[in-house]
Amino acid sequence: MMVARAAVPQAPDTVAESVLTVEDLRVSYASRLGRVLAVDGLSFHVASGEVLGLVGESGSGKSTAAMAILRLLRPPGRIELGRAVVEGVDLLGLDDSALRRIRWRKVALIPQGSMNSLNPVMRAGDQIADAIAAHEDRTDRVALRERVDALLDSVRLGRDVAGRYPHELSGGMRQRVCIAMATALDPRLLIADEPTSALDVVVQRAVAETLLDATHRLGASLILIGHDLALQAQMVDRVAVMRRGRLVEIGRVRAMFQQPVHAYTRALLAAVPSIRDPDGARRWRWPVEPGDHRARCFLGSSCVQDGATPAEALPLMHDIGEGHFVACRFGERGDETTLVDRS
Amino acid sequence: MTDRLPEATGTAPLLELDHVRKSFSGGARRRDPVVAVDDVTMDLPSDRPIIAAIAGESGSGKSTLGNLVLGLQSPSEGRLRFGARPIDELLRTEGLEFRRQVQAIFQDPTDVFNPFHRVDHVFGMLARFRLASSAEEGREQVRAALRSVGLEPDKTLGRYAHELSGGQAQRLMIARVLLLKPRLVVADEPVSMVDASLRVAVLDALVELKETLGVSILYITHDLATAYRVSDVIYILHRGRIVEHGATRSVIDAPVDPYTRLLVDSVPEPDPDVRWAGRLDDQPGGLAAGSSAPGGDSAMVR
Amino acid sequence: MTRGEHPWTARRGWGAARRVLPRDSRLRTGVAIVVGLLVLGSVGPSLVGPAGLSLGAAGYSQPPSAAHPFGTDPTGRDVLTLLVYGTIPTLTIGVLAGGIGTGIGVILGLLSGYVRGPVDTVIKGVADVAVTIPTLMILVVLTALVKTQSIALMAIIIGLLAWPYSARAIRAQTLTLRERGFVTIAVLSGRNAFEVMFLEILPNLLPYVMASLVGAVSGAIVAAVGLQLLGLGPITTPTIGLMLQYAFQYGAVTRGMWWWWGPPTLFLVLLFGGLFLISVALDAFSNPRLRRVEAA
After folding, report:
1. Which of the residues A146, A310, A315, C290 has an alpha carbon 20 to 30 A from that of C101?
2. Is the pTM of this model over 0.90?
3. How far is it, in rounded angstroms, from Cα A268 to Cα B169?
4. Domains of chain A
5. Residues ≥6 apart with Cβ < 8 Å to C280
6. Who wins on pLDDT, C60 or B105?
7. Residue B196 and residue A200: Cβ atoms within 8 Å?
8. Distance between B222 CA and the closest CA of chain A, angstroms
């Protein structure tokens, strides 16, 4: 059945303009088993100054989506469809030189594992300076030096760090160097992919604080990609949950944690242990009333989001109110009408 | 200072660490010797099975402690005893029996499989323990063990490790441990590389080991939340030293040591209304945690 | 985040080997060449017949003709016959010496890399020194002393000097593999050191062993030809090297007898080329950075 696609799930009160609008992003990989969809039908906004969490397990496509938005995908991955609009410009349609001007200056990425990808034979300060110089055609070494020092201050690292090599820095310090690099050109949007996943709990808190400080100082927005829901609860304003390349649910952080709708979101939350509330007494209670059509949304082969062939039906995003959207094949009356024909 | 558990009985403890210290020489960079484990004394009782968590951050020495208990490394000072006998002696005289009684589950579920062989190989290696009287019986034992951890033998045997998920691989290793019926299992970060939704199954399998087979588990982790969930007692390790220990619930609910308090406070709560109180630089030793130069157990850098 | 593939640790595995290698055109070409030469040497003699080996069988120093496609040498022997009969002995030297060298090298490399300690210090020390000494010089001295009269003996001597190269390569790989979890599990399952080395580590080294073997075979044939050109090799069995020895000894170049020195040279070029292609393909497979992107 052909039904018009729902509008892109929008943050509530978006009088403030959106920094990023992703529309219907589809990314596929060629593999020996054929074409595999890594991301399908992904649409969302990021409002100015907000922190959006992008959550999913491995294979959910969250990292792929980030790389695709910044056009950093390598073959055999390719972007088939979609738009990623930053300040009125669609990144996915730009030519290389225009893209280079926007990348890093408007949108910066802290890739997964970046703290382990620093050049081992270059001092930290030089690497930051290089990142600036590469995107700004600047060669004044003295000015660069001052910028680097200021950046290190902003991430609470001593200025001596500039003269050190990556192996002389701890994991937390290396990650903060990466944050410094990403914020060097005052971007409007930061995308951090699993910035703390290899770090210990206390260091994680330090890096998380640094990341939020940097974002707020720039007046920028942040997309925090990860799989740790507890960390997300600490840092974000809104959460988007992805599964197998598709957006499953998106909403304000409180609503997502206290009244999750989609069965997958509920399952994810149930799996997060808590030391302060080990029996889950304070957790959400989903009041399942008899006849409530939403109770029929359960994981299993009967759900269209499982293993549906790529070109077919993509469940619509239903607006539950206050910016809370959930993907579901059932409509208001519990009938199966709201599938989007994608063929 | 001995950290004996309050209810230790007169019989020899299952595992005993006596002022154990392990240091590594500085190596090519000519640093001072790195002390991974520093004067650790602890024991596990033998009269009842127990899950003891060794909790600490990377560089705390917890994995080195695990390796010492498994006999994979020898201490620089101090002694480790299993059932009142020194471990190094046990390895020399009754190596195979020691290996049967002390087993391990490791962090990386696929690294523990030899990529050249199918996963069946890890069971085949157990033949020397003579767990079955015939090949047929052995095969049946393997199948039963797999089923008891929630795996389907026909979908698991005959595969290569990379065809299994992290959770499946980890449970397969638990099945292997089940076959040996050891008395002590060292579980080194068994769920940190497993997807969140599969962790519960793996942790439950560990608890099953304790409850049905009476196996004691040394649960090494950096994740206080899972330690809270499965362990009875906990030892907090910081730079190779035990800074606090006791019943898990009381240590985590009401930590005494400032490092423990910092650790517990920094664990993120999956509740947006319960956010980190204050900033790290207001805590004692807070920001220093993120600024120390690398040291300690270099094998632990994750 | 589970089992993420960091580029430096991506595991290729045997499944990948079985899939990727047979499709590598370099491997196929190299194998085809070597197999072709092997066929030449095994089937050729029965096709050509030993007649051309006798002295004075045909005209002396004849250029190529219908009867003698590669002409004859100054003693009246048919060059094609010499080539065909010399193929197998030449390949035998290579395989025998390469096999001995690689075999010893693998064992010592495993021991050195896995057991470490004094054993490692000794083996590594000897190997490190040995590779700095030009092998040909030692070979010259040895063969002058021993006066090799059989290709087997020459092959053994060459093989005994070849182990340091493969030993170092295998040692390096062993050092990496011994840190892997499956080695620890084997130890925890009661395996002793030898079982771990040969049943757990060695199977995963096979690509490196093959690469070493191919290199060793190449190197052995080079050494053998070198010795023969210096007149230090055995003269009782026909080999390609022997052909070249006589050709240069009796001035084939100055006399313009290209049909005498040409074919054996071409043979060696083909042989080394084929072996090189095989080793490049194996190397590309083993080294993740050289491999073409394999779709996930």
Report:
1. C290
2. no
3. 21
4. 18-340 (3.40.50.300)
5. C26, C30
6. B105
7. no
8. 7
